[in-house]
Prior knowledge:
This protein has a single domain (about 25-325), classed as Alpha-Beta Barrel (TIM Barrel), CATH 3.20.20. Helix content is about 40%, strand content about 20%. The protein is built from eleven helices and twelve strands. The strands form two sheets. It has an eight-stranded parallel barrel with strand order 1-4-5-8-9-10-11-12, surrounded by seven helices. Strands 6-7 form a two-stranded antiparallel sheet. The longest helix has 18 residues, at about 145-160. The protein starts with 14 loop residues before the first helix and ends with a helix. The mean pLDDT is about 95.
Amino acid sequence: MSDSSHRPRRLRRNILIRDMVHETDLHLSNLVQPYFLAADKNAKEPISGFSAVYRWGINLLLEKVETDLKNGLKNILLFGAASPNEKNEAGSTAYEEKGLLPTAIRTLKEHFSESVILLSDVCLCPYTSHGHCGLVEGNEIENDSSLVALGQMALVHARSGVDLVAPSDMMDFRVGYIRDLLDEHGFDQTSIMAYTAKYSSSYYGPFREALGSAPQGTDRATYQMDFRNRTEALRELELDISEGADMVMVKPALAYLDIIKAFKERSSVPVAAYSVSAEYQMVKLMAAQGLVDEKKMAIENLTAIRRAGADILITYFAEFIAAGGWLK
């Protein structure tokens, strides 16, 4: 037997000791809850294949956010979408002042002011008839012409009072374009959370159902990242920071812990990770079959993401963690 002076189990022998020496914490202040919007102000629409996740009309969302705040959850990421008959090739409803998402931002800020931090998704896919995150010409997703539409969308959100815009499109140069446009119009205090390493992933299925944003024709691999690549993510990190990103993000999270770790080691700004819809739904489905404890697995997964280096975690479990006091 080896030297008995080395017994790591001594620091595991009861919960008080384990709590005293534990290394990684989760706090509600680290968590961001995504919410999907519905056109009907009083709607609470279930989403196929997305357990206990809904599209919310603004009247019910006001009540939901008020409950979240009482439970200690203050960070909200909003996703809007156009109805099928409103979608077009240009996704022009994405930057209408009276659109669903700008209206929700204004309403929530009028009610809650600085008590809530609002982030807004900046992407064209829920508004375009083709379901792509940029403008399509022929069989190509056009990069530079897409920046104009994305910039206008971000500007409308800033005018509506959002705290952070979150461009998720993965077009080159969009962080710099949006930063310059916001600054030019006096919104130099509006932050940018860049989807810096957004991978072309199989983990997005329930999310696409929520927004009706499945792409047609060309797939998104021409602009979202190849899941086989790591060095490319570091290049994206360098570029986004140089263009003015205030926060950077890795999406998905669980299958990309190595990327989160690499970002944390190299980033001069906070690192976010998006624990995406399929990561959430896998836990929900296993828990429904009695195979796992939902609370324990959700906390374990999120702690792993935090341990890898994420400062901010976007997760559909945030509202349940807050309501159930799972971190107490």
